[in-house]
């Protein structure tokens, strides 16, 4: 039992309460993790992934599971996750690093700028028996908004997410097309889906 573990992380705070019971035939895990004012720009810089990204986030994770390995625990996990970020700066380079195809889809919506202002990011998932289902997914930047829905299968690590885009610039509105996120957590893929039927921005934004 760790109750509580408190620490500083990238200028913010992190508090965790973890209960791992290995005395059972099938070990069980219960974890509650809360973070506030975590500077993800600093994290990316320290990890030598990208510089020039700015912003802070808060997180709220409450999960329970059981299994003989970390993968087995994830495969039957239950609980919820929430990540919320306010204003910041995002770079075109980071979009390209996130996965194959994302930079090609969202990069043009930045109007050729290397960086753009980020208004907010919201990610909420409910997890039941290893299947994480989106409750709200919003990525709101100055020139465009991305909203989405779908699932992450923690048993197989497969992604099945449908995203919709909307541009605030009429001149590039035709470039704002829906796209799908597939592949796995380790190797996500991003493919345009012009005829897709992802949830519209207004519908998803109304969920939070």
Architecture overview:
Strands 1, 2, 3, 4, 5, 6, 7, 8, 9, 10, 11 and 12 form a twelve-stranded antiparallel β-sheet that branches. The model is unreliable at 197-208 (pLDDT under 50). A hairpin with a 4-residue loop joins strand 11 and strand 12. This protein is 14% helix and 52% strand. It has 208 residues and is mainly beta. It is globular and about 60 Å long. The protein contains five helices and twelve strands.
Number of helices: 5
Largest sheet: 12 strands, antiparallel
Structural class: mainly beta
What's the end-to-end separation, in Å?
34 Å
Question: DSSP strand (E) fraction?
Answer: over 45%
The unreliable regions are 197-208
What is the 3D shape? Answer: globular
- Round the mean pLDDT to the nearest integer and report it: 86
Number of strands: 12
Estimate percent helicity.
10-25%
Cα radius of gyration in angstroms: 18 Å
Order of helices and strands: EEEHEHEEHHEEEEEEH
What features would you highlight for this structure?
single chain; 208 residues; mainly beta
């Amino acid at each position: 039992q760790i109750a509580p573990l408190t620490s500083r992380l990238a200028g913010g705070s992190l508090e965790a309460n973890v209960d791992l019971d290995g005395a059972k035939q099938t070990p069980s895990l219960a974890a509650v993790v809360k973070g506030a004012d975590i500077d993800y720009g600093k994290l990316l810089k320290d990890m030598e992934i990208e510089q020039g990204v700015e912003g802070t986030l808060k997180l709220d994770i409450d999960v329970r599971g059981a299994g003989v390995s970390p993968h087995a625990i994830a495969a039957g996990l239950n609980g919820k996750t929430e990540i919320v970020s306010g204003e910041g700066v995002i770079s075109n380079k980071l979009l390209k690093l996130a996965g194959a195809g994302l930079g090609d889809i969202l990069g043009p919506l930045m109007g050729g700028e290397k960086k753009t202002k980020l208004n907010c990011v919201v990610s909420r998932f409910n997890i039941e028996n290893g299947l994480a289902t989106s409750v709200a997914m919003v990525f709101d930047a100055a020139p465009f908004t991305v909203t989405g829905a779908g699932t992450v299968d923690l048993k197989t690590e497969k992604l099945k997410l449908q995203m919709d885009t909307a541009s605030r610039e009429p001149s590039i509105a035709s470039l704002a097309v829906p796209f799908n996120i597939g592949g796995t957590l380790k190797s996500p893929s991003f493919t345009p889906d012009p005829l897709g039927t992802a949830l519209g921005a207004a519908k998803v934004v109304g969920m939070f």
